[in-house]
Amino acid sequence: MSNIEENNVELTEEEVQQNISEQHQIRLDKLAELKANGKNPYEITKFPVTHLAKAIREDFEALENQTVSIAGRITSWRDMGKANFIDIRDGSDRMQVYVRIDDIGEETFKEFKKWDLGDIVGVTGFVFRTKRGEISVHCKEITLLSKSLLPLPEKWHGLKDKEERYRKRYLDLIANPEVKDTFVTRSRILREIRNYLDNLGYIEVDTPVLHTLEIGAAARPFVTHHNALDIDMYLRIETELYLKRLIVGGFDRVYEVGRIFRNEGMDATHNPEFTSIEMYQAYTDYYGMMDLIENMYRTVAMNVCGTDTVPYRGNMIEIGKPWARMTMIDAVKKYADADYREWADDEAARAVAKEKHVEVDSTATKGDVLIALFEEFVEEKLIQPTIIYDYPVENSPLAKRKPSEPAFTERFEYFINATEFGNAFSELNDPIDQRERFTKQVAAKRAAGFNAEVDEDFITALEYGLPPTGGLGMGLDRFVMLLTDSDSIRDVLLFPTMKPEK
Predict the structure, then answer these.
(1) Other beta carbons less than 10 A from residue 255's beta carbon
(2) Buried/exposed code over 444-456 (b: 16+ C-beta within 10 A; e: otherwise)
(3) Closest among 223, 294, 296 to 255, alpha carbons compared
């Protein structure tokens, strides 16, 4: 038979490609023969599936000797002459099928023997257990539903290269069925987050993906052009400003699961498009958001994983224990042995940075130096969930200043395994202060050659009055990485951004 047989012979890449080309032609010829005989599989529009493979396994006692109809892709084939065992895989699991000439007839069996691994078939038969104890379906009817024109990756030199797996996720899912579990878990995580927020009275909303101006935030946007309006537009880099407009309008608790686009580099935790969840609650502050995110992580982990202590990249992360909370000043003092409160002025701060061999700009302020020391000495130490709060105003343009210390803001980020997972503020609701910060941001971006503008409409919204508000943005992809113990963001995105093949 012409089905690809499993073997343990290592082939060169050239041999693999030649084999694929030959198989492609063989399968095209088989398809032409099917069409010539009036049996084009692509003309079949449906098949009456009654059971999934997983359900048959779980309900075997009730289904034994009962007739079922299943459908899926042929993934293995054991030829024993007039009787064959094939494995087919549906969306739930693998099922062994026993196909015998005496049951399906000589003509159908002859056609069946010409089919290939990868073909999609429908099977009707009764459920039984083989002598070896494997739950199977004894085929009475079998139908070719779709012809696979390319061979599946072979067992011994199959789809193992990660770049190829990310690029051809459909093949990855066929060759490595366990990969699907990650994305089933991702769906469950998202559902649990929504349930958690919905039960707190939050309303899920949608805001625009295309913006008419480039704001002054640090992230670089992707630019496109709207032909009808003849204007450039920018894919959003956040959902924050529109969500806060809704707080102004009277939605006291809102959130959005939003696709975000940033024209920046890629690494293990960054992809140019990713999913964030931003939530805003009127009449609370950043302490309220600390409690919210800590409880949310604990609840979601328990509901999805059955435990609030999870393995992640070699560490056991104790989500369920109370999270450590430290100000940025205290964290830098503890891990970098540098005390912000002893710095007399900006020059003294820059001298400390030099002493610690940390590069900063010649115009760096005390706040800039504090941030640089934090990034250099502190982040790598934050393995267990840790909230770092009270950030310098220099890098927190949308956070409310601390009334007791105006050089700092009511902002926090939380870190797990030396990585930032989310960011939160007591939201700045002073329109005058906001305009001043936006203006500085925009000036800096324009000096760097960007076409940034102040979002005047957002300022106008603030002038109508934004109540005291707590806001938080979390990266869904990083949370999925945590709960699935995934090394790279590409492992939790079905179709990550890839450089085109030559």
Answers:
(1) 24
(2) ebeeeeeebebbe
(3) 296
pLDDT in tens, 236-254: 999 999 999 999 999 999 9
List 5's β-bridge partners, or say none.
Answer: none
Exposed/middle/buried for residue 128 (C-beta within 10 Å: 0-12, 13-18, 19+) = middle
Q: Shortest CA distance to 316 belongs to which of 331, 330, 305, 332?
A: 305
Q: Give helix 456-464 / helix 431-447 axis angle, nearest 10°.
A: 170
Tens-place pLDDT, residues 14-66: 877 888 899 999 999 999 999 999 999 999 999 999 999 999 999 999 999 99
Nearest to 249 by CA among 13, 458, 83, 82: 458
pLDDT 10s digits, 301-336:
999 999 999 999 999 999 999 999 999 999 999 999
Inter-CA distances, 234 with 27, 423, 444, Å: 46, 23, 19
Full set of structural domains in the chain with CATH: 13-158 (2.40.50.140), 179-323+384-491 (3.30.930.10)
The answer on pLDDT for 7 being more than 60 is no
Q: How far apart are CA 502 and CA 500, in angstroms?
A: 6
Query: What CA–CA distance (Å, rounded) separates 496 from 370?
Result: 35
Please say whether the beta carbons of 185 and 483 come within 8 A.
yes
Alpha-carbon distance of 128 to 137, in angstroms, equals 6
CA distances from 118 to 18, 152, 327 (A): 18, 6, 57
Split at pLDDT 50, 70, 90, the class of 3 is very low
DSSP SS3 for 435:
helix
